[in-house]
Amino acid sequence: MTGQMRPAAADLPLRDTRYRELETYPEFEAVTEWLRDYVQSSVPNPKMGEREYWAVVCLPFTSEADTTQRLCSVHAGTYETACVFVETTPEGQRRIGGFVTVDTAVLERDAGTDVGGLETGYPGLRFRTQPATTTIWWTAAADSREQFDALPWRPAARHLVTEVMRQGKCLEASNHSAQLARFAQAD
């Protein structure tokens, strides 16, 4: 025993108490696996830019009107680039899902079709296109997750995150959860 006592939750910064709360969720392992995949795939040199240029926020704000609870989100520069959430069905079942935002031109190039073609070819996913970006939503339903994993989103996500990080520092740095980010780092 080291003689050190764990601080009471009331004495910790909000981001630390949120992490401790997330640890108790049944989705914790799935969240950390998803986070590791996303950061290793999308964030260039994650150890060097952590907090200053990219951040992970644990249990970020969720609107009361939202039917999902956000478990963690990843931010780069001024963008929220990815999120994982849980929704509770009317029957009380919990389903995990999430989204990534990617560079549309890179996604279409790598997929060999435009977003309209992707919507037809990947019916288990939802796509929302902005002028230069596309957000791709997935759920834990088998067809959705398989389609998401088969979609060539990783190079398009990495391109977007790289460009956004070049534009400036992360606006969510003060909310960064170093405890959760450690799961994103390579061994």
Q: How is this structure best described in words?
A:
Helix content is 38%, strand content 24%. It has helices at 14-23, 28-42, 46-49, 104-111, 115-121, 142-150, 154-167, 178-181; strands at 54-58, 68-76, 79-88, 94-103, 126-129, 133-139. A 6-stranded antiparallel sheet has the order 1-2-3-4-6-5. A hairpin with a 5-residue loop joins strand 3 and strand 4. Helix 4 (104-111) runs antiparallel to helix 7. The longest helix is centred in the first third of the chain and has 15 residues, at 28-42.
Short description:
This protein is α+β, with helices and mostly antiparallel strands. 38% of the residues lie in helices and 24% in strands.
Overall mean pLDDT: 89
Global geometry: globular
Strand percentage? 15-25%
What is the count of helical runs?
8
Task: Record the strand order, biggest sheet.
Answer: 1-2-3-4-6-5
Number of strands: 6
Query: Spans with pLDDT under 50 lasting ≥5 residues?
Result: 1-10
* Helix content, binned percent: 25-40%
Main β sheet profile? 6 strands, antiparallel
Distance between the termini: 27 Å
Rg result: 17 Å
Structural class: alpha+beta
SSE pattern? HHHEEEEHHEEHHH
Topology:
Blueprint: H1 14-23, H2 28-42, H3 46-49, E1 54-58, E2 68-76, E3 79-88, E4 94-103, H4 104-111, H5 115-121, E5 126-129, E6 133-139, H6 142-150, H7 154-167, H8 178-181
Antiparallel strand pairs: 1-2, 2-3, 3-4, 4-6, 5-6
Helix pairs in contact: 4-7
Descriptors:
disordered N terminus; 38% helix; 187 residues; 6 strands; alpha+beta; 6-stranded antiparallel beta sheet
